[in-house]
Amino acid sequence: MSAPFLSIGHRGARGHAPENTLLSIDTGIRLGAHMVEIDVQRHPSGALLVIHDLRLERTTNGKGRVEECSLDYIRGLDAGADNRCRRWRKSWTWR
Length: 95
What we know:
- Helices cover about 20% and strands about 15% of the residues.
- The chain has helices spanning about 20-30, 70-75, 90, and strands at about 10, 35, 40, 50, 85.
- The strands form 2 sheets. The protein has a 3-stranded antiparallel beta sheet.
- The chain is elongated.
């Protein structure tokens, strides 16, 4: 008998929704993932941001290095499908 497998959503449900967004986390759960993995970076302000890349261009409508942009600027960016860049603490209070 084979052991049951564990399904983990990569950056939420990256292939189905913009990665590292609340939509992606929710989609991963709805698709049956047992867990979802997200990426967290510490901003120079001390805030923890849910974002993978060191630069903003690939996953948001912003430009520049995460560490060189203000927290207000980053929080106002669209991370896809009208999802804002989130602080880690806020990601866990979405329900």
